[in-house]
């Protein structure tokens, strides 16, 4: 059977019918998640109550919604239809994102950001642990996830200049930041209906594979699940209490703290440091994001080719730590952009490699539940990072101390990554 399958042709088909639509979902999701970072450059002037501390807390409130709804959503999708669940996620987060344009108090700001996180909860665990293992073999997964996760820098490449322009415009009688929230909510609602007809949650349901390809894909998936189960069959509870899973939680917590603390405050810090207009800041941020996108592709292809994971992740974390730790010492706008590039590459490049790790030793509902646990608890760092930076700025007048803390967190992530086992059941080579 395998000899009659053109593997390259099959991969190209999956790029079009799986990676591409999921890429679009992720671009829209990240735009709607972090557009508040760009809106913050002007909304703080229109809303007197929006202090740095309240802004940081509200930005991070998104991840409290994640925390409460991540695991139930992932387990539900693992048992039923993953693609319909992703479509539901998109539709509801699109509606809630538009509501951000009309918040009038700290309480409303907190509630809407919390609801946005609750709506998006389980999106990435369903992609990583349910959808992708059914569609991509273990030795393809790091590259496939990395290719999809180029959506994160791409969303900034699109979102940064778009936000910079929109913030200086007044559409529909709204302030620029209000227009930003409303306009960026619309794609999520529209693409919901495109996605649900485009993507199927397993090969046997697809219309674009031949019968031989369907059988081949289903057999490969079953074989990999059996290999994992033969090494150690995890129940959902065992997966949620596994030491390796909790080590991954800690690694990703410090990573997410640095990633999201940096993401939510980066536009404002660069604007204050440089004195550039919002539109110039938006276009300037395209540069580090393009470089981060290239880094993500290189890291993912390298990991899939060599089978190595630990050092791929750790070196990226160390690079990000250098960027964050050095940023407070920079006074030149152009040199600060160089350090922003270090951080952007460091916190983005190994993301696809990282999310291929849990499915090397977990499968089925156990993988979905554990991935959701990792994402939900670790993303509390997304609450801590922005809030901590907001408090540091409120009480010290700068974010310098906050960036030192974030840099230390990335170093901890890198060192812990190197303590993971070198081999997992589905690895074809040492990692």
Textual characterization of the structure:
This is Sugar phosphate permease. InterPro entries: MFS, MFS_dom, MFS_trans_sf. The chain crosses the membrane at residues 16-34, 54-78, 85-104, 110-131, 143-167, 179-199, 245-266, 278-299, 311-330, 336-354, 361-381, 401-420. There is one protein chain. The chain is mainly alpha-helical and 431 residues long. It has one domain: MFS general substrate transporter like domains (Growth Hormone, Chain: A). The chain has helices spanning 7-46, 52-79, 82-99, 106-120, 123-135, 138-148, 151-166, 176-198, 211-231, 236-240, 243-274, 278-284, 286-306, 310-326, 333-348, 351-355, 364-378, 381-396, 400-417. The radius of gyration is 21 Å and the shape is globular. 57% of the residues are buried. The mean pLDDT is 83.
Count, helices: 19
Shape: globular
CATH level 3 topology: Growth Hormone, Chain: A
Radius of gyration: 21 Å
Q: Spans with pLDDT under 50 lasting ≥5 residues?
A: none
What's the number of structural domains? 1
Distance, first to last CA: 29 Å
- The helix/strand class is mainly alpha
Count the beta strands.
0
Average pLDDT score: 83
CATH homologous superfamily (4th level) name = MFS general substrate transporter like domains
CATH architecture: Up-down Bundle
Report the CATH C-level class.
Answer: Mainly Alpha
């Amino acid at each position: 059977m395998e000899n009659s399958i053109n593997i390259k042709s099959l991969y190209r088909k999956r790029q079009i019918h799986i990676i591409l639509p999921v890429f679009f979902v992720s671009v829209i999701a990240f735009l709607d998640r972090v557009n508040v970072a760009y809106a913050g450059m002007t909304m703080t002037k229109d809303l007197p109550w929006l202090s740095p501390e309240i802004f940081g807390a509200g930005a991070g409130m998104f991840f409290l919604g994640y925390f409460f709804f991540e695991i139930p959503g992932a387990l539900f999708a693992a048992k039923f239809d993953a693609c319909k669940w992703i479509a539901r996620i998109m539709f509801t987060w699109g509606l809630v994102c538009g509501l951000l344009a009309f918040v009038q108090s700290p309480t409303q700001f907190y509630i809407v950001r919390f609801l946005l996180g609750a709506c998006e909860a389980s999106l990435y665990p369903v992609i990583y642990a349910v959808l992708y293992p059914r569609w991509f073999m273990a030795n393809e997964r790091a590259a496939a996830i990395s290719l999809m996760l180029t959506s994160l820098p791409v969303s900034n490449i699109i979102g940064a200049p778009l936000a910079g322009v929109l913030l200086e415009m007044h559409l529909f009688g709204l302030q620029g930041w209000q227009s930003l929230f409303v306009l960026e909510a619309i794609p999520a609602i529209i693409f919901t209906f495109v996605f649900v007809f485009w993507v199927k949650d397993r090969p046997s349901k697809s219309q674009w594979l031949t019968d031989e390809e369907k059988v081949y894909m289903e057999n490969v998936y079953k074989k990999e699940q059996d290999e994992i189960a033969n090494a150690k069959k995890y129940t959902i509870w065992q997966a949620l209490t596994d030491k390796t899973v909790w080590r991954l939680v800690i690694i990703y917590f410090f990573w997410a703290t640095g990633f999201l603390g940096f993401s939510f405050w980066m536009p404002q810090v660069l604007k204050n440091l440089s004195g550039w207009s919002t539109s110039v800041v938006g276009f300037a941020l395209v540069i580090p994001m393009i470089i981060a996108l290239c880094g993500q592709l290189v890291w993912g292809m390298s990991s899939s080719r060599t089978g190595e994971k630990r050092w791929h992740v750790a070196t990226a974390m160390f690079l990000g730590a250098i960027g964050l730790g050095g940023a407070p010492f920079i006074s030149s706008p152009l040199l600060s952009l160089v350090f922003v590039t270090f951080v952007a590459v460091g916190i983005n490049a190994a993301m696809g490699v990282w999310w291929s790790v849990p499915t090397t030793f977990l499968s089925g509902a156990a993988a979905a539940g554990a991935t959701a646990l990792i994402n939900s608890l670790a993303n509390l760092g997304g609450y801590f990072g922005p809030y901590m930076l907001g408090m540091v700025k409120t009480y010290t007048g700068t974010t310098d101390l906050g960036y030192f803390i974030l840099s230390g967190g990335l170093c901890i992530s890198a060192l812990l990554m190197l303590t993971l086992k070198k081999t997992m059941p589905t690895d074809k080579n040492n990692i």
